[in-house]
Specification:
The chain is of the alpha+beta class and about 160 residues long. It has 3 helices and 8 strands; from the N terminus they run H-H-E-E-E-E-H-E-E-E-E. Strand 7 (about 125-130) and strand 8 form a beta hairpin. Belongs to the thioesterase PaaI family.
């Protein structure tokens, strides 16, 4: 016998979106260690800022390409989950990602602008632009994620950020 999933109220949907926003910033150790911040998080898309740090560099004053790629993955997956219908699950995994580096990522921060461009039953697609403070796009990417099943721990407390 199959048991139907419980219907989530609008309030429960909002609470899950808020929980995932906090998780992206404070609950994912990599994002926290890189000091990523969610500037915007809504169904139309997300903006994620990554401040420059020498530990994230390839050359003096330039972000490492792998860190820019991780920013694209984080923002793209965030754009999908920020507008997701949690009746369809909450366990998200990246399936594929493509990145095009257009210019050196040089500056005090990089900001990823991501939006979900297609929602399927299980596969969801997001486009991401990464801009530098002068407005120049340094990288573009597409992220494909799958969402199915329930992520353990959804709704559990997330530790506040501490100043280091």
């Amino acid at each position: 016998m199959t048991v139907a999933a419980r219907t989530l109220t609008d309030q429960e949907q909002r609470e899950r979106r808020a929980w995932f926003r906090a998780r992206w910033e404070r609950g994912v150790a990599f994002n926290r260690n890189c000091r990523m911040r969610m500037l915007r998080w809504d169904s139309d898309g997300v903006e994620v800022v990554l401040p420059y740090a020498e530990a994230l560099s390839a050359h003096e004053g330039v972000f490492h390409g792998g860190v820019i790629s991780a920013l694209i993955d984080t923002a793209g997956a965030g754009a999908v989950i920020a507008g997701h219908d949690f009746q369809k699950g909450s366990r998200l995994s990246t399936v594929s990602m493509s990145v095009q580096y257009l210019a050196p990522a040089r500056g005090r921060e990089a900001v990823a602008f991501a939006r979900c461009v297609r929602r399927g039953r299980r596969l969801h697609f997001a486009d991401v632009d990464v801009r530098m403070p002068d407005g120049r796009i340094c990288a573009r990417g597409q992220v494909v994620v799958t969402i199915s099943g329930e992520r353990p721990g959804v709704g559990d407390p997330i530790e506040p950020l501490t100043e280091e």
